[in-house]
Design brief:
There is one protein chain. The chain is mostly helical. The chain has 4 helices and no strands. The longest helix has about 45 residues.
């Protein structure tokens, strides 16, 4: 699963670079619009980097929460773009939305894996303590 996670993180990088190239082609004569479009490309590159970092750190719940929030925000932006162009089924929307959806699932999976690990640790710790109490001789005799 970690490989799949990394593949989709890399696909997000490809999408961000494609967005940057398309933005330049569309807005090269409109400096202000180009600046904002390239800012979105940069933000997506940062989100992709965070997702790749999370894929390599399966025990980092805080990072998984940050990537989940970022990916959810990205999904809202992708959907909003589709609405603005009048076609939520445009290939750009479907590709970006699909990649982002997989990364949302992977972030949730990381978070749920951490909560399962914590429950298992708590159960193991509690049973270890009760075993130690039973095995230790009574003090004060």
């Amino acid at each position: 699963m970690r490989t799949l996670d990394r593949v989709f993180g890399c696909l997000m990088i490809v999408g961000a670079l494609g967005h940057a190239m398309g933005s330049y082609a569309a807005y090269k004569t409109q400096a202000m619009a180009l600046l904002w479009a390239l800012s979105a490309s940069f933000a997506e590159l940062l989100l992709a980097a965070l997702n790749l970092l999370r894929a390599g750190r399966p025990g980092d719940g805080k990072l998984a929460a940050v990537t989940l929030a970022g990916n959810l925000a990205q999904m809202v932006l992708v959907y909003t773009f589709g609405r603005l162009i009048g076609n939520v089924f445009d290939f750009r929307v479907l590709i970006q939305g699909g990649v982002t959806l997989v990364l949302i699932i992977m972030s949730v999976r990381t978070l749920s894996g951490i909560s399962h690990e914590r429950k298992a640790y708590a159960t193991t710790s509690a049973s270890s303590v009760s075993e130690q109490v039973r095995e230790s001789p009574a003090q004060g005799s």
